[in-house]
Write a structure and sequence with these properties.
Elements (H helix, E strand, L loop, with lengths): L1 H9 L21 E7 L6 H9 L6 E7 L6 H11 L3 E5 L6 H10 L5 E4 L5 E2 L3 H11 L3 E11 L5 E5 L5 H7 L12 E3 H6 L10 H10 L3 E13 L5 H4 L4 H20 L8 H4 L10 H21 L6 H16 L6 H15 L7 H12 L8 H11 L1
Parallel strand pairs: 1-2, 1-4, 2-3, 6-9
Antiparallel strand pairs: 4-8, 5-9, 6-7, 6-8
Helix pairs in contact: 1-2, 6-13, 12-13, 12-14, 13-14, 13-15, 14-15
């Protein structure tokens, strides 16, 4: 297994020594608690842990919670815990879902910082060192994340996803979905406890936590890829975006609270699914789609008035164009609606919005985007990498 991880890492960090054969005593108080939730991850979990052992920063503990796996995952994790005292293994009595499982891991954290490593991903060796350095030198930052290298089941590189922006842009994007890459992120444990940690719902726990943390400090994105994010058919985060029945009630609670706090506006609950970024394109109602566009434009203007955006006004405006594209693709697109959206955003953010790469690409999509059918996961990932 170590050989497979070495092969995966060698392309990016040649000569890095893995430490799977070295048993180290756990520090009395580790600086970083790495949190891992695992469910039926027997195919990949060894590679994930090997990549943690290969980190250049070694003052960590791994808290891994198995969520009722039915394969060999618990046996593998128990073996790792017996092999390295920094690895602490726990198991849920039955499957609880990702939100409660992450919260259990967070409750057990002893570090100053918590980092998320999913059981099917691979961290590059400088991941922890870079995140710790960033939080150490930026006390105003509560969460830091970064870009991701997307790999397939076999570990082959697919693309790089850049889902970042300035703190102001991330603040805006939090209104309608989660812009923070939880795989690879690091946040402050005390602050996470202060806001209540993860919600008990099995989905959207990351969006909820980052919204709450954003009220205590800044969220920052580093445009360097230090995590290999694996895409495979059983990955729940790629399948759940089509399940409106599961996601919409949770998204409604988070979105209504977030938008109200940031803009003073009340989100019509029937528009939440149109506004939500975490779903795939669907064929919706034309009138509702156009109402959702009106709400995006209203929210953008209110957000600009409530927040001193300064030089970031253009970047936030460009991101609002992407949100306009998102809602109109669900059934409300027309040349008139597209022009209306651009005119409103430009009047608020300035004509320079169209000169930015994100703004110009968004404007092209907005003006030329008829209703589309839902994309496959692979096509969605390619779109996200192009828009970065």
């Amino acid at each position: 297994m170590a050989t497979q991880v070495c092969q995966a890492l060698s392309e990016y960090w040649p000569g890095q020594e893995l430490m799977s054969e070295k048993v180290r005593p756990i520090p009395a108080m580790p600086r970083v608690s790495v949190l891992m939730a695992a469910y039926n991850a027997e195919r990949y979990v060894d590679q994930a842990i090997e990549s943690l052992l290969a980190q250049t920063y070694q003052n960590w503990e791994l808290i891994v919670v198995d969520d009722g796996s039915t394969d060999s995952t618990p046996i593998r994790l128990q073996a790792w815990a017996e092999r390295d005292s920094r690895i602490r293994f726990y198991r849920n009595n039955h499957n609880l879902g990702i939100g409660p499982t992450r919260q259990r891991a967070l409750d057990l954290a002893r570090g100053t910082y918590a980092a998320i490593l999913d059981s099917d991903d691979i961290a590059l060796p400088e991941w922890l060192a870079a995140r710790v350095d960033h939080l150490d030198h930026h006390p105003e930052v509560v969460v830091v994340s970064g870009s991701r290298i997307v790999i397939d089941e076999s570990g082959k590189r697919v693309c790089v996803i850049h889902e970042g922006g300035s703190p102001e842009v991330l603040h805006w994007r939090l209104l309608f979905g989660n812009p923070v890459s939880q795989p690879s992120c690091m946040f402050r444990v005390a602050e996470a406890g202060q806001v209540g940690g993860y919600i008990t719902e099995p989905y959207l726990e990351d969006w909820d936590l980052f919204v709450k943390l954003s009220e205590l400090g800044q969220i920052e994105h580093v445009n360097v890829a230090l995590m290999m994010y694996r895409v495979h058919p059983s990955k729940a985060s790629l399948r759940i975006g089509t399940n409106r029945e599961l996601l919409e009630p949770v998204a409604t609670r988070i979105m209504c609270r977030t938008v109200k706090s940031a803009t003073g506006l009340t989100v019509p609950t029937e528009l939440v699914w149109y506004l939500f970024r975490g779903r795939y394109v669907f064929r919706g109602n034309r009138r509702e789609s156009q109402r959702a566009l009106d709400f995006v434009l209203q929210a953008h203007r209110a957000f600009a008035e409530e927040n001193n955006l300064g030089s970031q006004s253009t970047a936030v405006g460009a991101t609002a164009i992407e949100d306009a594209v998102n809602v109109l693709r669900c059934g409300g697109w027309s040349p008139l609606q597209a022009v209306k959206a651009l005119a409103s955003i430009i009047s608020c953010a300035g004509i320079s919005t169209l000169l930015s790469p994100v703004g110009s690409r968004g404007a092209i999509k907005l003006l030329l985007a008829p209703v589309r059918q839902a994309r496959s996961c692979a096509a969605w990932l390619n779109l996200k990498s192009e828009s970065g």
